[in-house]
Design brief:
The chain is of the alpha/beta class. The protein folds into two domains: about 180 residues, Rossmann fold; about 90 residues, N-(1-d-carboxylethyl)-l-norvaline Dehydrogenase, domain 2 (Orthogonal Bundle), CATH 1.10.1040.10. It contains twelve helices and eight strands. β1, α1 and β2 form a beta-alpha-beta unit. The protein is globular. It binds 3-hydroxybutanoyl-coenzyme A. The site of 3-hydroxybutanoyl-coenzyme A has 16 residues, from α8 and α10.
């Protein structure tokens, strides 16, 4: 098997951009694909800013930052990903979109040694893998769940699907470690471990707000000061995206066959109103200027 030198990252959003940066600072080439050139431009500018900040803070030398930047390329064409030996998909959390993409990726990378990883936060790896063709091709599909902000967060949750080969799982663990992360394995059940535990807690914070147990500042303050969370659950929901939180709760409800996981009515209402959190400038809290 050729040595891993190049990773393709699909989706130039927060997660895809962060994964590309982690790869480039770990001496791997990263090709970032997004069909929207505007998203690629934004991603490139963010890489320049974050690497410059790392130099300012003395965490990285200027030549190392320059080399990392030079290792990342950006393309709107899926065909340009061909030189990669590993793919990490980080597109929107929509099973149909991901499955359509995995069918195209399986065709683009006929070599079964090329791993097709998904950064899904809750969608079944087994289900996504069915789009990659027959069993030998499904064996290379694996969950590689990063956390936001990727350059800061230590964890990669590694999730084999039913068809994933043990060898691919072990290679995924090794890659996560090479990216400077701590890999921990979870089984392919809705939400895996991270969102199975985190999202109901966030959802409960919306219920506490809706039922008047306390206002958002107090709910977050209590959880920050009382439980030592870096962000309160409502601030974290804005950071993740309220639409993403609601979507993950629905995946939990469907996947675990229980209505108790449905999103809180107040969370759904904010999403309907377009209050999606940081990315829309307002969610639970306001973010003027974003
Ligand atoms: N990208 C890169 N680096 C960032 C960053 C970003 N978006 N935001 C902050 N950082 C870096 C800063 O540069 C700083 O680095 P330094 O220590 O080298 O100076 C460091 O993080 C700390 O930043 P700040 O001092 O500005 O701010 P805080 O101390 O408040 O930390 C935080 C910010 C790291 C975001 C912290 O609040 C935190 O850990 N929050 C919780 C994040 C979390 O729970 N993430 C998981 C979300 S769930 C998820 O992603 C899964 C999905 O499936 C839903």
């Amino acid at each position: 098997m050729p040595e891993l030198s190049t990773i393709a990252i699909i989706g130039a959003g927060q997660m895809g951009g962060g994964i590309a940066q982690a790869a480039a600072t770990s001496a791997l080439r990263a090709i970032v694909h997004d069909p929207f050139p505007g998203a690629l431009d934004k991603c490139k500018a963010l890489h320049a800013k974050l690497l410059a900040r790392a130099v300012e803070k003395g965490k990285m030398s200027q030549p190392d930052a320059d080399a990392a930047r030079a290792r990342i390329s950006y393309t709107p064409n899926l065909d340009d990903l061909r030189p990669a030996q590993w793919v990490i998909e980080a597109v929107v959390e929509d099973a149909k979109v991901k499955k359509d993409l995995f069918a195209r990726l399986a065709a683009l990378f006929p070599d079964p040694a090329v791993v097709l990883a998904t950064n899904t936060s809750s969608i079944s790896i087994t289900e996504i893998a069915t789009a990659a063709g027959p069993a030998p091709s499904q064996a290379r599909v694996v969950g590689m769940h990063f956390f936001n902000p990727v350059p800061v967060m230590q964890l990669v949750e590694v999730i084999p699907g039913l068809a994933t080969s043990p060898e691919v799982t072990e290679r995924t663990v090794a890659l996560a470690a090479r990216l400077g992360k701590t890999p921990l394995k979870a089984n392919d059940r809705a939400g895996f471990v991270s969102n199975r535990v985190l999202m109901p807690m966030i959802n409960e914070a919306f219920y506490a707000w809706m039922e008047g147990v306390a206002d958002p500042d107090a709910i977050d303050g209590i959880m920050k000061l009382g439980c030592n969370f870096p962000m309160g659950p409502l601030r974290l929901a804005d950071f993740i995206g309220l639409d993403t939180c609601a979507h993950i709760m629905n995946v939990l409800a469907d996947g675990l066959n229980s209505e108790r996981y449905r999103p809180c009515p107040l969370l759904k209402q904010l999403v309907t109103a377009g209050r999606l959190g940081d990315k829309s400038g307002r969610g639970v809290f306001e973010y003027p200027g974003r």
